[in-house]
Amino acid sequence: MRMICAFALVSGLMLAGCGNSGPTAAEVSDATAKAGTKALQFSGHLPKGPLRCATPAAPSGTMTVRCTGTTKDGEPITVAARLSKLTAERPTEELAISVDGEEVLRRWCVTTCPQPTSTGTGKPR
Environment class of residue 16 by beta-carbon count within 10 Å: exposed (0-12), middle (13-18) or buried (19+)? Predict the structure, then answer.
């Protein structure tokens, strides 16, 4: 069992990382789905049901997550997240959300995002 060494709060989700292991694919997928859902709700693009996420293979030290779903109006949703430097104290993060092929939000955070603003942008760290 892994000892919990550090926490990050994201949309009500606690991510645990210990030593150099970084977050697991399941933790990042869950954080991406929750952050994407909150941002979509804030922007008025209400998802119809939960987002479905996959974590494709990526180079060592990097993780990508792609979540898909539809809005209540039937428009396709894509939420893409990319994290690198996973074992660093502050990984490099990027989150992009598209609805019906049009990007509606891009933020430089996935696991430690502040609440969405009216502009929908996050500031790089």
Answer: middle
- Give the total number of structural domains in the chain: 1
User: Distance of CA 123 to CAs 33, 34, 39, 72, 109, Å?
Assistant: 20, 19, 15, 29, 8
- Which amino acid appears at position 31 of this protein? A
Return d(Cα 102, Cα 65) in angstroms, integer.
Answer: 18
State pTM to two decimals.
0.71
Digit-by-digit pLDDT tens for the chain (125 residues) are 222 222 233 333 334 444 456 678 888 899 899 989 988 988 899 999 999 999 887 778 888 999 999 999 999 999 999 988 877 877 888 989 999 999 998 887 776 666 555 444 443 33
**Which helix (H) or strand (E) is 37 found in, with range?**
helix 25-42
**Domain assignment present for 67:** yes
Range of the domain at 57: 6-107
